[in-house]
Amino acid sequence: QVHVVESGGGLVQTGGSLRLSCTASGTGFTINVMAWYRQAPGKQRELVATTTNGGSTNYADSVKGRFTISRDTARNTVYLQMDSLKPEDIAVYYCNVQYRRATSAFVNFAWGQGTQVTVSS
Question: Which DSSP letter does residue 47 get?
Answer without folding.
Answer: E
